[in-house]
Amino acid sequence: MNLANILGFLAVIGYLATLLPSILRVVFPRVRRNVLVIWLTKHRRLVGVSAFGLGLTHGMLLIRQQGLDLVSLSTYRNYFTGFAMLLILTVLSVTSLDWMRRKLKRFWVKLHRLTYGLMVLIPWHIYQTMAGNFSPITHAALWGTGTVTILFLRRKQLEWNRPSKAKPVEAVEPESVSTTAD
Description:
mainly alpha, 9 helices, about 70% helix, disordered C terminus
């Protein structure tokens, strides 16, 4: 087990920690008052930026250790998932500042939904790069990602089944409808 893999694992843990507060509040409403959930909610962006830093360091160490050629197209094809995750985390980190949130307004929320793509990319990346060399932290990362993904899907199911809070459509008053041809 080398430092690069440990940093990758810590990046996954940090990423999952950013997702948990909103998921847990919907799936397990009683945890709203939990100290850890409150802390994670308050410091979610800091934890996310830290996950980006850990992921970036993980990638840089592996590029150096394996002597990857960043000019070669085959490098990007072989490590597509890693580069895609790094791109998503870079965008999320750069736009996580308060002034970016104010500047981007509604687009900020849509942009930060990119984070859910990582739930697919992380296991794909692990299987692609660690095939045949699974370690205990590999299993833990897959288990954690799978658990959070299942909880996320449960959250979405609960939200879809919740009665809508939309305003009812107002009926058209009979006197405002013209019955004669002009």
